[in-house]
Amino acid sequence: MINMINKRGEKMNLKKLLLGLTDGAVSLDELPQFWDEYAQFYERLQVVPSYRDLSALLLDALFPCPGGLVHDGGCGVGYYFADILDRTQAVKLIGTDFSPEMLKRARHSANKLSQECGAALMVEVKHIDLVQDWPRGPFDAQIFQLVANFLPGTNWKRIIDQSYRTTKPDGYLYTTTMLAGLSVQELAKKHILHEALGSPLASYPAMLKARNTMKRFNKLASNGHITQPCKQEYIAYHRQVGFQEVEVIGEAFWGAGIVVRARR
Ligand SMILES: C[S@@+](CC[C@H](N)C(=O)[O-])C[C@H]1O[C@@H](n2cnc3c(N)ncnc32)[C@H](O)[C@@H]1O
């Protein structure tokens, strides 16, 4: 077995490293670079059944806000820009993220959309660390798909607080978050056959890498660097902040996560 020493002085297996299967933990200040790596294969994951089901769930939950302004927070590569605009009928979308690689791809998606739709539509992509800063608003809708549970500490609460502050009355907050206690990896093992059979071969490496990502985030969670909410706590916090009609729209990843819609 050939090993290498990483910059934190940890021993790492070279074969695993080359396959992208490193189990070295990520530290909090490396998170943007970590998401940069993830950006390389994130799009390939979107065709895997569990991701397809999740995006259908979220998109079906979106209410129209014709002519409105929408925030796609932690927008990643901008994979959902077109669908979000289609469902909401908004005329302006602001996508925010803090990973340069994600932003590069998101800007490409935004430019493509602008070329297709012309001046009737404005898609703006901004570099914002949502733990430090927030776009101005006020928004008709804010969407955070698989973002809140990846923030350090209990910053999942900040997503709800800041969204309340910057969403118009009667506007909506839509979030998908993973929950404390259930391991996606364990659940995924039970569903691996269905996932594999329903996915093109080209997405298999991305599935392996995503597994590795989850492992690293689990480490951050078990070290207390990231605190994922419990289901009741997550719902209750929306109400505590002032949101009304807080609904669980459905489950993500076999119950390891939930999709929530809340009216301001
Ligand atoms: C799992 S991806 C989800 C991407 C997108 N929402 C989607 O569903 O396709 C999480 C995204 O959140 C972004 N993110 C994580 N922490 C962030 C932060 N503090 N500020 C802004 N974006 C962040 C990552 O860069 C990444 O693009």
Overview of this protein structure:
This protein has a single domain (29-263), classed as Rossmann fold (3-Layer(aba) Sandwich), CATH 3.40.50.150. By secondary structure, it is α/β, with parallel strands linked by helices. The chain has helices at residues 14-18, 31-45, 49-61, 81-88, 100-117, 156-166, 184-190, 192-197, 204-222, 231-241; strands at 3-5, 11-13, 69-73, 92-97, 122-127, 139-145, 167-178, 244-252, 257-263. The model is unreliable at 6-10 and 14-23 (pLDDT under 50). α6 (156-166) packs parallel to α10 (231-241). The chain has ten helices and nine strands. The chain is globular and about 45 Å long. It is 43% helix and 22% strand. The strands form two sheets. A seven-stranded mixed sheet has the order 5-4-3-6-7-9-8, with helices on both faces. A two-stranded antiparallel sheet has the order 1-2. The site of S-adenosylmethionine has 19 residues, from β4.
